[in-house]
Amino acid sequence: MVHNAKLTVLAGLISRHEHLFRCPICSGPLKMDGLRSMICGSRHCFDLSKDGYVNLIPHAVRSKYNKDLFTSRRETSRHGLFDPLIDAIRDKIEVMVPSRSGELRILDAGCGEGSHLTAILSALQRPDAPDILGIGVDIAKEGIRLAAKSGAPAIWCAADLAGSPFAGRQFDVILNILSPANYQEFQRLLRHDGLVIKVIPGSRYLQEIRALFHGKTANRPSTEGGRTIDWPTPANGHPIDRPSSPAGRTAELFGQKFACVDIQHVAYDMLVAGEALEHLLRMTPLSWGVPEAAIRKAAGQGPLRVTFDYDVLCGRMNE
């Protein structure tokens, strides 16, 4: 049975890495109990899903992100629209994470349907690379369920960062890509020489879609031909301060929580059409509240040159 095989693989993977987990209720160590559950000394029990993920959320939660949005984000990734961003993140990990003989552990906090983590793990796989463990966590079960069904070689966890189910100082890299952060937890989970990589949208991110649906004037693209632009790191090691914008305030807060060792501006544009365009339109919250007819009309109007604009912030623990 496919589902039984998935469960067996997941249970084996978790068993080999039990030391990474803690109970989200009492913070005690979690252990595998057969092939179906994880359990702590206080008998708090968390089930493994037949779809191939572990549910570590002890209470009911609601998420505004649904299966259709996650499906569209997965398809958007499949069409390569995030590839330059993935390449930039891979390069940061290869250059900035200290080499070690043991396993490289990467946590994607707010992984959604897992397409970013899956692509990054694949990009890092080389004959001379260390063993890599990827763990994706998200509070939205629909996203985690899709991630697990993809068959990607990672541990997928439905969990709340506010009650994180992981032991401290266990991760070499924490990814936080276009997702809310919990800096206190990141500081607890990161190894002393580890790296946090946070991606935030720039001012031109999907500006053409914003103009299409909300009548905002789109700024001119900041790049031509899909170039990637590097911003030099300021001498004081802190991120470029742009407090007038939400992205600037986020970068400023990041610099307060971590020793910011690098900031890169990744911007490119792509001509998007057909199925890829429809999935891109449905993936973004910019289409929330837009009538279905308007989305279909926009998707059917032909190719749209779309700007992708990100700030990639890399930080280490403040000593």
From TrEMBL:
EC id: 2.1.1.187
Annotated S-adenosyl-L-methionine binding sites: F82, E113, G114, Y205
Pfam families to which the protein is assigned, alphabetical: Methyltransf_25, Zn_ribbon_RlmA
EC top class named in words: transferase
Keyword annotations from UniProtKB, A to Z: Metal-binding, Methyltransferase, S-adenosyl-L-methionine, Transferase, Zinc
InterPro entries xref list: Methyltransf_25, RlmA_N, rRNA_m1G-MeTrfase_A_prd, SAM-dependent_MTases_sf
Occurrences of domain 23S rRNA (guanine(745)-N(1))-methyltransferase N-terminal (ranges): 21-58
Any one GO MF annotation of this record: 23S rRNA (guanine(745)-N(1))-methyltransferase activity
Positions contributing to Zn(2+) binding: C23, C26, C40, H44
Matches recorded under CDD domains: AdoMet_MTases
Family annotation (Gene3D superfamilies): Vaccinia Virus protein VP39 (3.40.50.150)
Domain of life: Bacteria
Chain ranges of the Methyltransferase domain: 106-193
Keyword S-adenosyl-L-methionine: yes
Key word S-adenosyl-L-methionine present: yes
Name of the protein in its database record: 23S rRNA (Guanine745-N1)-methyltransferase
Native source species: Paenibacillus rhizosphaerae
